[in-house]
Design a protein that fits this description.
188 residues, alpha+beta, 4-stranded antiparallel beta sheet, 9 helices, 8 strands
Length: 188
């Protein structure tokens, strides 16, 4: 659990006792590749920290086209945030692209920790702010960058992702067809 402690300590300082108390509020979940963590319509009671593995969060439109919103690899958090925070049913599917091990934090335990420990609330606020910034950058990239530029940004930010997922999944994340991505790869 040293990785989780280090993750928290990127933002806040924790004593061993404080971290042990925080950790006592988590449970562990292991999933196999292709297994769903969350499916559309599920109740979403947890947020998940990825200890090992790779997951994707995706929305499927009425034409059955999948739109990938987020990847989550080691040291990242993932859930259907709308469902988690509003206590409603999931609108996203989250599935494992690799065998994964997750630490699960229930909504109730997260709220409890935030009430009891100001530094934990500070941690989650800073993580949320980082997420908002990343989402804004991604949305602006979709509005102002062409596919080549979006591809290059993704490649520069997460080069190892390209070894872990298929080109079809990369294309879905970039909002283009697999064929368009192949043509771009040929040019590059």
């Amino acid at each position: 659990m040293e990785k989780l402690k280090a993750h928290f300590e990127e933002i806040i300082e924790l004593t061993d006792d404080e971290f042990a108390y925080i950790l006592s509020h988590f449970t562990t979940k292991k999933l196999k590749k292709h297994q769903f963590l969350i499916q559309i319509g599920d109740k979403v009671n947890h947020t998940y920290w990825v200890k090992k593995g790779l997951l994707k969060a995706a929305y499927t439109d009425e034409k059955e086209k999948e739109h990938i919103l987020q990847f989550a690899m080691e040291n990242w958090w993932i859930t259907d945030y709308q469902a988690y925070f509003t206590r409603t049913n999931a609108i996203l599917n989250i599935d494992c692209l690799e065998n994964s091990e997750l630490l699960c934090l229930s909504y109730e335990n997260r709220e409890k920790l935030c009430r009891e420990m100001q530094k934990v609330e500070h941690f989650f606020r800073k993580k949320a702010n980082s997420g908002f910034i990343a989402l804004q950058k991604r949305m602006l990239s979709f509005m102002s960058n062409n596919i080549k530029e979006r591809y290059e940004i993704l490649l520069s930010q997460y080069p190892h992702l390209f070894q872990r997922v298929s080109k079809t999944i990369i294309a879905s994340y970039l909002g283009v067809s697999r064929e368009s991505l192949s043509r771009l790869n040929t040019k590059l």
